[in-house]
From TrEMBL:
Pfam families: SBP_bac_3. Keywords: Lipoprotein, Palmitate, Signal. This is Amino acid ABC transporter. Residues 1-25 form the signal peptide. It comes from the Bacteria. It comes from Gracilibacillus boraciitolerans JCM 21714. Residues 41-94 form the Solute-binding protein family 3/N-terminal domain.
Amino acid sequence: MNKLSFKGIVLFLLVVLAACGTSNNEEQSEGTNGTDEKQTLSVVTEAGFMPFTYLDKGELVGFDIDLLAAVMEEAGYDYKLENVGWDAMLLSVKMERLILL
């Protein structure tokens, strides 16, 4: 249970941090890169922690996924969600290809 709680808390905090940002341009709207297009963020997770994140008929679902969708919509970002294992996530961080899990 501690592992599930820890993963849920970490994912929540990372989603909140990903949604936060600063802008030097006051006219620039949140979640955009200065154009009318929304900025797309890559989000990775491991789908092995029901009810937080799990696969249902090949689709990622759960509390964390619903929370992510709500935060990203409010922040004005599009996102690409990918299911990978912890080893791959940590390796990506080490190689500086991924900043947030």
